[in-house]
Amino acid sequence: VKVRFAGRLCDGFVLSIRDHTEHDRVQPINRVVSTEPVLTAPVAGLVRAVADHWAGTFNDVVRLAVPPRHATTEKATPRQRSLPSADDLTGLDAGPFEEVVGGAGFLTALEQGHSPRAAWQPVPAAVPAGDWAAGFARAAAATWASGRGSLCIVPDATDLERLTEACTAVLGKDAVTTLSADLGPSARYRSFLAVVRGQVPVVLGTRAAAFAPVANLGLVALWDDGDDLLSEPRAPYPQARDVLALRASREQTAVLFASHARTAEVADLVRRDWLRDLTLPRERFRRLAPAVRIAADDDRALDRDPAARAARLPREVFSVMRAGLAQGPVLVQVPRAGYLASLVCQTCREPVRCPQCNGPTQAVHQRVSCTWAGHPVRGWQCPECGDSRWRAPVVGAIRTAEELGKAFPNTAIRRSSGDRVLAEVSDEPALVVATPGAEPATPGGYAAAVLMDTVLLLQRPELRTGEEALRRWWNATGLVRSGVDGGTVIAVGPGESATLQAFLRMDPVGTAQREWEDRRTAQLPPAAKMVAVEGPEAAVGDVVRQLLAELKDCPDVLALGPGPIEAPVHSEEPWVRTSLTVPAAAGATLTRQVRATLANRSAHKREGTVRVRVDPREI
């Protein structure tokens, strides 16, 4: 509807109709824009809960939940759908859950109308037990057998395409629809209307689809919750995993969270018995996974190749590539896209910066350009030592593909990165060079995989450095054939690294538990509740002082900062960040007080923009 508020015509939603009001004076509705109930009562309640949880506002969140209206699509005649019956779906085999401890029981509980909650650990290998998409399809079918709908969320379009194919194969195309910004306004709104009208029971989508108004919702499922694409970049910055957890608690639905690399957040939910583990027996898990090793990690390998530790591609890696190419395609994962992905001074190692915007630089065929703006950088001279020579400590995917083409002159080289992402490659022998997240699938899996420049992922100064590195490596491993079928993964990096050793152990569950313990010791999320306040120093200081005054009775409040951060492009003054941490039990008190403080600032029109992030991904 359109309503007049404070002299302006605003958009609104009708949530309920009553025959009396407690207000002295009400305004008439200016215009009914649509009679479609696009904001249902359960979703409106979820929107409020998400706003409360992330210290945001209802308006901030509702724009994520309801896509823009498309009038022509709304007036069109909806297509007729033929849905499978419960008899068609009851008694299907357990598929990827066949050997999982408790897997068959999980599916049976769904078929019987119960709401089990599980954290599933698929094998990181190209085997049926690692086919997460088939597992989601089987769970959705079991849920529909009890007359309930399912909502399955994935990070990106590639995962969405794979999941759609799997669900359509089991349930038929009429029972499945997708919700994604990539669909375009008309197609997206058409799918949304099919959901809100209760015409389709299985909804698949990316992060914003977590709010989809699925009728009689029985299951929420999420793949790879650690992917940063599942974190909303707009305020109040909700994460799809936590939105689905809130929704499951409110609507009493079943839950299925699955990933190759478990996050500390999912480990926390398992620790609190909110989720239960679904995993293969340990020995079977290790047997099905590819054989994993680190290059030059023992004395024998160093005796054969004394320069291995200093080489970007040790001799052992070439041996793995040759052996793999005799059996099929070989995946080469490179952390960075581009050619020469970052530049430093030849003499003093000072980063080469763009003289116009101070951004990072890159080089292609000896031509230096700004990574951010793309314009050429000519006549650079180091501001520290005056040298005009530069070198590239980081080699990107394009240069890597070029070098491998010279080393393997009779082998096809395929590249997938940046704006050129391949969805799939054939099972013919080839070297496939890809950046993390852009690795194409291949029928039957890769014969081998090489994880290059792992030290670049390990050097990132972030809370989730180890967790994110393992996620990228195990996701790549998930595209490789089983160890039983000769699949091999070799990582190039420091063998003494605790993260690489965790990768070798192939124990995602135990690794996540240890990560949670480390977070508890350091008083970091999810073992504690954290709020990061960002903005100009004066504004941040004002907010933090108010919060500390209001939280004086809250035990163990810890303030970190202020520390400098990168300011938004539109800001004319530097920004800082101060983080406040409290025990998890006091988390609701902290976020409630943050909302009240921000509302007070807004009402009094205080100067300075302040941005608040609850449990920020990066600290």
Short key terms for the protein model shown above:
single chain; 619 residues; alpha/beta; Rossmann fold; Alpha-Beta Plaits; 3 domains; 20 helices; 33% helix
Structure description:
The protein is α/β, with parallel strands linked by helices and 619 residues long. It folds into three domains: 86-284, Rossmann fold (3-Layer(aba) Sandwich), CATH 3.40.50; 290-338 and 396-505, Rossmann fold; 523-614, 2-Layer Sandwich (Alpha-Beta Plaits). Helices cover 33% and strands 19% of the residues. It has 20 helices and 24 strands. Strands 6-7-5-8-9-4-10 form a seven-stranded parallel sheet, with helices on both faces. Strands 11-20-19-12-18-17 form a six-stranded parallel sheet, with helices on both faces. Helix 19 (537-550) crosses helix 20. The longest helix has 17 residues, at 587-603. The model has no long low-confidence stretch (mean pLDDT 91).
Q: Give the overall shape, derived from the CA principal axes.
A: globular
Structure classification: alpha/beta
- Cα-based radius of gyration, to the nearest Å: 26 Å
State the end-to-end CA separation: 41 Å
Lateral arrangement of strands in the main beta sheet = 6-7-5-8-9-4-10
Unreliable sequence segments: none
Helical percentage: 25-40%
